[in-house]
Amino acid sequence: MRALIAVATAATLAVASPLLAATLGDDGLHKTDWMRDTFKDLREDLAEANAEGKRLVIFFEQRGCVYCTKMHEEVFPEPVLSDYIEENYFVVQMNLHGDTEVTDLDGEALSEKAAARKWGILFTPTILFLPEEVPEGQSVSQAAVSVMPGAFALGTTLDMFTWVNEKRYELDGDEDFQRYHARMIQERDNGKTD
To answer: Start and end of every Thioredoxin-like fold domain (predicted)?
Structure first.
């Protein structure tokens, strides 16, 4: 009987509990199950992402970032987004002020904070999306197909991840990200969500 009560209580708590947010790591950055702990040699990360059929994406965050917290507590836990990221992306997290060594796609080894300066990252969160193939000698900032600077609501964030994953940046025509996003707003819930 106690076992049955324990199972029922656990099931009730699981249903009643809100979406789980990311945990904070020792570095003060949010950690999710879909983030990869790599040696931060981005050439190797790109090759591994390609081998898994995923897109390489780099998340810049920093300790105490209220916008990063908002994203990790309110946006990324939504299953429609977290499942999409996990299924389609190889995520490498970087610390805007970090000292961990990173090897850029052009082969240069530098600290996370030096990489942030080199790539023009000014604030957090900033998400850089990479293509599957990068011409030799290009840095991350030169190769990025899109950059998402800042914290956005679920609809905008999902649309950006979808737009990149579907390679809509390569399509000819007039539907850049803003037009794509506007169309998706209209299609989603009759325009009730962003």
So the answer is: 50-133
- What's the pLDDT at 21? 65
Q: 136: which residues sit within 8 A by CB, 6+ positions away? A: none
What is the Cα–Cα distance from 177 to 157, expressed in whole angstroms?
A: 11
- Burial class of residue 70, CB neighbours in 10 A (0-12, 13-18, 19+): middle
Question: CB count, 10 Å around CB of 188?
Answer: 15
Query: Could you say which residues of the chain have pLDDT below 50?
Result: 1-18
Domain at 121, CATH number: 3.40.30.10
Do residues 191 and 111 touch, judged by C-beta distance below 8 A? no
Angle of helix 177-187 versus helix 154-165 axis, rounded to 10: 120
